[in-house]
């Protein structure tokens, strides 16, 4: 039987991808002639766009969508803007999709020189936002949360991907340097490290308090780690950051180290590419490279009905355009043949209880899903504790009726967050 998740017919395994002694050779995707960047535009509302076609952009330049907004991205390239279009991402999040023709000669924004000065959280926030590995910069400078522990995680966030493990195997000196920089910049008293048990020896030289995690999914989930490894329960509706702990991926830490060591912006993202036969390759692609170019490099064709997933099979999102750019958090690209795409049914829940038995948050998913299907998100939260879901996707994976349970859950959480944000703004 085909189970409900993006795993499809690729051999189902609920264990993280464990890299062996050797690392698959890294394929370098050629730098693209044109780069696409996604600049959040929701704050712009009725204000005029700040950027226009024909504008020159420097590497390291902060790009804002309008005057007075604080959302921005840092350009990983130099060149000329040739197109700006509206783009709608997951859950209706709006962006300006900016196409930049990459210049032959790179020019650098003066802000890059901050990397030659003493590290600070503000520099991380202003310059290293969106860098490969997705450094969670907001939490480092936020006045809303007070981080007292940083956890460098060398484990993966989803099945099949191997980004953090590959970083450990190939860039341990960058990780060490990144840890030193974070200690200085973030002024956080405690740093520790999480590593899959098979890589424990590789990280010994980093010199941090190290905890190991097993290979069974979803043991490396941050909220589960907080409970099982650090003995702190994250209450429903709270984040790990709000409990004082910030998880940062090994790749992000390595890139912080590399940025300060070289005085340049790291711009190459490490991606696990899985083809239709389930064969995995590791690739390095510049941020802003299109998925089309990455797949062409591996001779992977996408036909009508095939599915392309960003991220891993349990938590990833299907993308609808091969022009979608590689982003700082694109750990995986999985291509599924249409015959392997798991079917979604409109069968009702038969109350078999499979989802309840597997849920690591011990939620009554069979009841939750009834309210979510009906769009009754408040009720789902109040009566069945939707906020306690850790978003592992296991309920969808086991659902015998092939219901898109996880999709209902993520949509429900998104709608609740939107309502709360509107209420907070009117309070
Ligand atoms: S995604 Fe499903 S299985 Fe995972 S915690 Fe949430 S409800 Fe439970
Ligand atoms: S696994 Fe699917 S069919 Fe079974 S109780 Fe859960 S939602 Fe219902």
Largest sheet: 6 strands, mixed
By DSSP, the count of extended strands is: 16
Biggest sheet strand order reads 1-13-12-16-14-15
Provide the CATH topology of the domain at 113-262.
Answer: Rossmann fold
Reconstruct the topology from this structure.
Elements: E1 26-28, E2 34-40, E3 56-57, E4 62-64, E5 72-74, E6 79-88, E7 94-102, H1 121-127, H2 137-141, E8 149-153, H3 163-170, H4 172-186, E9 190-196, E10 209-213, H5 222-228, E11 245-249, H6 250-262, E12 268-274, E13 280-286, H7 291-297, E14 307-310, E15 317-319, E16 332-336, H8 354-358, H9 365-373, H10 377-384, H11 394-398, H12 405-426
Parallel strand pairs: 1-13, 8-9, 8-11, 9-10, 12-16
Antiparallel strand pairs: 2-7, 3-6, 4-5, 6-7, 12-13, 14-15, 14-16
The protein binds iron/sulfur cluster (2 copies).
Walkthrough of the structure:
The strands form four sheets. The chain has a six-stranded mixed beta sheet, covered by helices on one side. A four-stranded antiparallel beta sheet has the order 2-7-6-3, with no helix packed on it. It is an alpha/beta fold and about 425 residues long. Helix 4 packs across helix 6 and helix 9 (about 365-375) packs across helix 12 (about 405-425). A hairpin with a 5-residue loop joins strand 12 (about 270-275) and strand 13 (about 280-285). About 25% of the residues lie in helices and about 20% in strands. The model is unreliable at about 10 (pLDDT under 50). The chain has helices spanning about 120-125, 135-140, 165-170, 170-185, 220-230, 250-260, 290-295, 355-360, 365-375, 375-385, 395-400, 405-425; strands spanning about 25-30, 35-40, 55, 60-65, 70-75, 80-90, 95-100, 150-155, 190-195, 210-215, 245-250, 270-275, 280-285, 305-310, 315-320, 330-335. The longest helix has 22 residues, at about 405-425. The chain is globular and about 60 Å long. The chain is built from twelve helices and 16 strands. Among the domains are: about 35-110, OB fold (Dihydrolipoamide Acetyltransferase, E2P); about 115-260, NADH-ubiquinone oxidoreductase 51kDa subunit (Rossmann fold, 3-Layer(aba) Sandwich), CATH 3.40.50; about 355-425, no CATH class. It binds iron/sulfur cluster (2 copies). One iron/sulfur cluster binds near residues 358, 360, 363, 391 and 409. One iron/sulfur cluster binds near residues 349, 399, 401 and 403.
């Amino acid at each position: 039987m085909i189970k409900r998740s993006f795993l499809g017919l690729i051999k189902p395994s609920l264990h993280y991808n464990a890299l062996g002694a050797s690392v698959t050779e890294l394929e370098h995707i050629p730098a693209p002639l044109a780069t696409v960047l996604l600049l959040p535009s929701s704050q712009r509302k009725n204000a005029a766009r700040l950027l226009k076609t024909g504008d020159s952009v420097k590497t390291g330049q902060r790009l804002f969508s309008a005057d007075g907004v604080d959302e921005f991205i840092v350009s990983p390239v130099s060149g000329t803007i040739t197109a700006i279009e509206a783009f709608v991402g997951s859950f209706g999040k709006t962006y300006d999709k900016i196409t930049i023709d990459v210049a032959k000669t790179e020019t650098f924004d003066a802000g890059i020189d901050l990397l030659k000065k003493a590290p600070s959280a503000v520099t991380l926030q202003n310059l290293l936002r969106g860098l490969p590995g997705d450094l969670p910069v907001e939490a480092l400078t936020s006045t809303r949360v007070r981080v007292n522990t940083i956890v460098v995680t060398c484990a993966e966030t989803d099945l099949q991907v191997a980004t953090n493990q590959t970083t450990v195997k190939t860039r341990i000196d960058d990780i060490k340097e990144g840890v030193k920089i974070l200690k200085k910049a973030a002024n956080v008293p405690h740093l520790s490290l999480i590593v899959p048990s098979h890589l424990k020896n590789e990280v010994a030289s980093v010199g941090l308090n190290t905890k190991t995690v097993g290979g069974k999914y979803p043991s490396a989930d941050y909220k589960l780690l907080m409970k099982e490894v650090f003995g702190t329960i994250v209450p429903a509706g709270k984040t790990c950051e709000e409990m004082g702990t910030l998880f940062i991926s090994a790749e992000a830490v390595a890139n912080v180290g590399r940025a300060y060591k070289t005085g340049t912006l790291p711009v190459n993202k490490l991606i696990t590419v899985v083809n239709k036969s389930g064969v995995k390759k590791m690739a390095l692609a510049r941020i802003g490279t299109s998925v089309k170019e990455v797949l062409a490099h591996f001779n992977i064709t996408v036909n009508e009905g095939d599915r392309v997933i960003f991220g891993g099979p349990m938590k990833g999102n299907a993308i609808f355009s091969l022009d979608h750019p590689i982003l700082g958090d694109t750990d995986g690209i999985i291509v599924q043949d249409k015959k392997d795409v798991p079917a979604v049914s409109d069968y009702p829940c038969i109350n078999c209880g499979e989802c309840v038995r597997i849920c690591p948050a011990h939620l009554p998913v069979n009841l939750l899903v009834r309210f979510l299907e009906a769009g009754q998100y408040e009720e789902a939260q109040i009566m069945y504790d939707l906020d306690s879901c850790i978003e592992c996707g296991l309920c969808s994976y086991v659902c015998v009726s092939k219901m898109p349970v996880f999709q209902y859950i993520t949509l429900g959480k998104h709608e609740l967050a939107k309502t709360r944000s509107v209420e907070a703004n009117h309070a």
